[in-house]
Structure formats: C-alpha cells, structure tokens
Design brief:
Pfam families: Glyco_hydro_1 (PF00232). Helix content is 39%, strand content 13%. It has 464 residues and is of the alpha/beta class.
Length: 464
C-alpha cells in the first residue's frame, strides 16, 4: 500500500501577524504588516491617526495559544509552523538589546508545543519587518539591514537552540517582485533595479542565517520558503512553452540562488538586458554559497501563460497574473484548483535541486457557514486537501523526498492578500468576522475530524 514515511511531519502553518494580535503588547514595535491594514498589496497607512486593522487582534493567538495548541494536539499534529514577529524581539529593528518580554513569549509558545510533542517549524520573517527599518533605513534597499537581520537571527537561534530545530528564513521570498513593501520594505513605485538590489540583500541575509544557524546548532536544519507559482503553457506552441519556462524562472531564480549558491545565467542575462546593475560584492558571492538544507514552499494553485500578453493579464490570483486553465475549477477567490500540479511541482523541485522538500502551505480559502447545529460541514475543504495529499503520496512514490506537510491556517486567521476573516482555511472555526465582531470562540469543523483520521492513519485514510 502506498504510504507516507514514518518520519513524515503532519500539521498546520500560521504566521504571527495573521494570528497573534496583541500588536502593541509587551514592547512590540510597529511592523510593515501593522501599517498595511488592507493586506499585503494595500497601502501603508498611518496608524497613529487611529485607523483599525483586523490584525490588531487577529484571532488573539497571543493569549489563546495554549487552548489552540491543545486543539492541534487533539488532531494529532506532529508539527506546527509559526513565525516570530521580528518587532517583538527588536521593536525598531536596530536595537542592540532584544526585548526580553518578546523572547519570553516565544519561549512559552515553544514550551507549550513541546508539552504536546509538536515540533516547531519557525519562519524568521513572514510578511513583516520592523517599520523602523523601513522609515529610517529604506528597508532591504539598504545593505545595513542585512546586519540588523543577522543580529535578530543570531539572537533567536541562540535563545531557542534547545527548543527549535527546524527554521525557515523568508516566507515566499519571491513575493517581493509582486508586493515590494511586504517583501523588502520598498514602495510599490520602486524601480526594478531597486527591487532586485533589495532582493539581493535579502538573499545574502538568508544565506548568512543558514551559516549562523549551523554554527549555533549543528543539529538544526534550515530551509528557504518559495511561493510555488507553477505555471503551464496555455498551448503547445513553442513560444508558449518557452514563455512558461521564463515565467517559472521568476520564482525558481530564488530557489536557484538559495539551493545552488550563485546567480543563474538566465538572471544575469535578464539584468543585462534590463539595465539592472546590482552591487554584488565578492564577499556577498561567498556568503551565498551557504545553501539551505531543505526547500519549503507554498502551493495553492497553478496557472497558465501564453506568449500573448493581453491574454496573460486576464486573471489575477494571489500574486500572479495568469490565464485561466480551461481544465480546472476555481475557488471562490478565483484560485485554480490543481492537485496534480502539486505532484508536478514536487517532482520538478526534487529533480532540480535534490534537496528534501517540505510543503509548508496548502489549503482552500472559503466562506464557511456554520449549519443549524453550529458546525461547518466543509466537505469542499476535505475534498481539496484529500486530493492534494493523494498527489503528495504519489510524489513520494515517484522517489521525491518529502519531510512533511503543514496545511495553511489550521485555525481560521486573517488572510494575507486582503486582510479578511471571511476567507477561512481552518479545521477550527473562529467566531470573528470582517468587521471584527464575534466572540473569538473556537469550534471544530467537519474537516477537523477528517484531518485527525488522516494523521492517525499516516495517510492511509485518504481516498483516491
Ligand atoms: C501565502 C502566505 O501567500 O498564502 C500566507 O504565505 C497567506 O501568509 C496564504 O495567508 C494564503 O493567502 P491569503 O491571501 O488567502 O491569506
């Protein structure tokens, strides 16, 4: 019988700014996320003027994490992906001394996970950075930010060396091309040169983190995190096929640098032809040679491209402009559902890099309506997740080394793209709406019991 490896990690993934709330508690500083109440593509808003953001309270995980972790443990999680809010540790980003209250919070969180035998997988920066570093230094455009990040990374690697063994550097690092404020702290109006220079600094910082992590704890494993933006050619016209290859390289470029330790030739050509002159030092090149131990990625949907530019602009998903695939259905948010794409992506990444893979985000955002008894009967979510997991199992049969699977938002949380609560991913329902109304009470959806069984049987209960 096809099965998952015994060591396979099962669980869910959240990000600090989408669950924690407590945005000004215990010395936390302002982050880019705090200043983007409309989501990662939204404008930067002056919060001092009194504007509200759903993320200020989010789902109040900061105070409710013990109960939430209990529910994750009830589902049988062996892994939880969380992120550290950089601003809880260094409120402005450039301090020498960390904020002890912030460090203590994550100590408590990791202890709680350990008490339930749940392995933490920790992202250093998930769609947020200290606003102080943007305002005073110009975000990742400034080389000095590498040093501030290095100090932050060293601080948390040291503090949590006995509690955390699995780390990720930057969430969806390729996202900076589409949401530069969120990714690298640069205004949307930035030029391509400015964005790629900031990305270069971030790639150097990521490689530095790999080295520091290994120095501090040789048993730790650290990965990158890519938005797996798998793209197909709309037709078999050679021009469309090449267009798809180019489009895939837009995200593979990040993986190529982080896994192979150098800029690929196709990128050097792109820089040349677009008059992008980057400041890349010999020291940078040497640092980039510290490559990640494993590759993590998110996967929600696939897309198509054609060499026909007008058609290319017709559909917009989370971040990519893509042409609809006539063979696929879409979610309520227009994301095209493609379980086989996950098998393709796993094989593609394995063939390209030969490094272990970790699926750290996958899931269906939907408008859940509790039934008369108050339970969400989310068969649509069950079917989405089942079909994707079946393909993960197929990829493992293909010989791909997969470390684990953490579904996105195992508990409802504030969505990233539009900062909504009505777009729900959870196995656990949270009573809070887009206006911030609701008791914040948690309840189990139908999918809660389904996932519990999947984990208990190590995938044997999957259908298909
Ligand atoms: C990924 C992010 O892009 O997709 C998450 O890493 C995000 O932070 C997730 O929440 C789903 O996107 P959205 O916009 O539906 O929340």
């Amino acid at each position: 019988m096809k099965t998952f490896p015994d060591t396979f990690l099962w669980g869910g993934a959240v990000a600090a700014n989408q669950v924690e709330g407590a945005w000004r508690e215990e010395g936390k500083g302002l982050s880019t996320s705090d200043l983007q109440p409309q989501g990662i593509f939204g404008p930067v808003v002056d919060r001092v003027a009194g504007s509200k953001s759903l993320k200020d309270v989010a789902i109040d995980f900061y105070h409710r994490y013990p109960d939430d972790i209990k529910l994750f443990a009830e589902m049988g999680f062996s892994c939880l992906r969380v992120s550290i809010a950089w601003t809880r540790i260094f409120p402005n980003g450039d301090e020498q001394q960390p904020n002890e209250a912030g460090l203590a919070f994550y100590d408590r969180l990791f202890d709680e996970l350990a008490a339930h035998n749940i392995t933490p997988l920790v992202t250093l920066s998930h769609y947020e950075m200290p606003w102080g570093l943007v305002k005073q230094y110009g975000g990742w455009g400034n080389r000095r930010v590498i040093g501030f990040f290095e100090h932050y990374a060293r601080t948390v690697f040291t503090r949590y060396q006995k509690k955390v063994r699995l780390w990720l550097t930057f969430n969806e690092i390729n996202m900076s091309l589409h949401a530069p404020m969120t990714g690298v702290g640069l205004p949307e109006t930035s030029s391509k040169s400015e964005i790629y220079q900031a990305i270069h600094h971030q790639l150097v910082a990521s490689a530095m983190a790999v080295e520091i992590c290994h120095d501090i704890n040789p048993d730790a494993r650290i990965g990158n995190m890519l938005l797996g933006g798998l793209v197909y050619p709309l037709s078999c016209k050679p021009d469309d096929v090449f267009e798809a290859l180019q489009e895939n390289r837009k995200w593979q470029f990040f993986g190529d640098v982080q896994c192979r330790g150098a800029y690929p030739g196709y990128m050097l050509r792109f820089f040349r032809e677009n008059d992008i002159q980057l400041d890349i030092t010999d020291a940078d090149r040497q640092i980039l040679e510290s490559t990640v131990d494993f590759i993590s990625f998110s996967y929600y949907m696939s897309g198509c491209v054609t060499a026909d530019e007008t058609l290319n602009q017709q559909m917009r998903g989370n971040i990519l402009s893509m042409v609809p695939n006539p063979h696929l259905q879409s979610s309520e948010w227009g994301w095209q559902i493609d379980p086989v794409g996950l098998r393709t992506l796993l094989n593609l990444l394995w063939d390209r890099y030969q490094k272990p893979l970790f699926i750290v985000e996958n899931g269906l955002g939907a408008k859940d309506i509790p039934d008369a008894t108050g339970v969400v009967q989310d068969d649509y979510r069950i079917s989405y997740l089942n079909d994707h997991l079946v393909q993960v199992r197929e990829a493992i049969e293909d010989g791909v080394k997969v470390m684990g699977y953490t579904s996105w938002g195992p508990i409802d949380l504030v969505s990233a793209s539009k900062a909504e609560l009505s777009k729900r991913y959870g196995f656990i329902y949270v009573d809070r709406d887009d206006n911030g109304e609701g008791s914040l009470a948690r309840s189990r959806k139908k999918s809660f019991y389904w996932y519990q069984e999947v984990i208990a049987t190590n995938g044997a209960s999957l259908k298909g």
